[in-house]
Amino acid sequence: xxxxxxxxxxxxxxxxANKTDAGSAVITLEGATARDATGGAMALLNDATAANATVIxxxxxxxxxxxxxxxxxFSDGGTARFExxxxxxLIFGNVAGAVGSIEGDGMVSCTEGAFSVGTNNLSTLFSGxxxxxxxxxxxxxxxxxxxxxxxxxxxTVTEGILAxxxxxxxxxxxxxxxxxxxxxxxxGIIAGAVAIGNASGATATLDPAGGTTTYPTLTIxxxxxxxxxxxxxxxxxxxxxxxxxxxxxxxGVTINGGATxxxxxxxxxxxxxxxx
Length: 276
Prior knowledge:
The chain has 276 residues and is an all-beta fold. The protein has strands spanning 13-17, 26-29, 41-45, 54-57, 68-71, 77-84, 89-92, 97-104, 107-110, 114-117, 124-126, 129-130, 134-137, 142-145, 155-157, 161-164, 177-179, 182-186, 189-190, 194-196, 204-206, 217-220, 224-226, 230-239, 242-245, 247-249, 253-255, 260-268.
């Protein structure tokens, strides 16, 4: 859909309503190309679903508004892939959201509670801003958050990998992080308290390396707790008088009964005495 390209013009709109779905379509919503013009818009309402579509939400240029995709009234994102750029936005207005994946550097907002990401099991990077709601990481893929997010509802990981790689602010917003299954990883900054594992019995893991061959430092500005079903995966490598290892920095650590620590490392040659 092409957004407006003259001053005060409105962008084109597409709507799915009353249990309709977007199938496997590729839908491009263009941002406006002139100041004060409106970008293209897509709305889903009344049990509509984005199904398995790919929705590309572009930002505006020359002062124009970005495109928007809005969900209302029991609609959902299915397993759709959302690529959001610039000042484009994906908004769940009055409904809890679920989408296949998010990527790009745009804006995501869910004003009515939980926002689930990962139903299509893809691994994606989102460097934009999530401004509202409670983020739930589902599916087997990896979601990497590299922006300074501002949502305050908290973060829950149930499956796959959630990696934070932000350099400022908090990759997981202001709220607490609960890893009920899957893995928390990355070299970014988390503002809220982090709890690994819960009473459900599912294995939950804190692994800063996240299955990579890097040795990052994950910074938690609040407390860190390991519960009975949790695992901390510590990896390192050492050669002669040099070593590299993953690191977690937290403001207080609690290790409860049943927590597991898994050490994985490799050495090369004879190590220098005193190497730590």
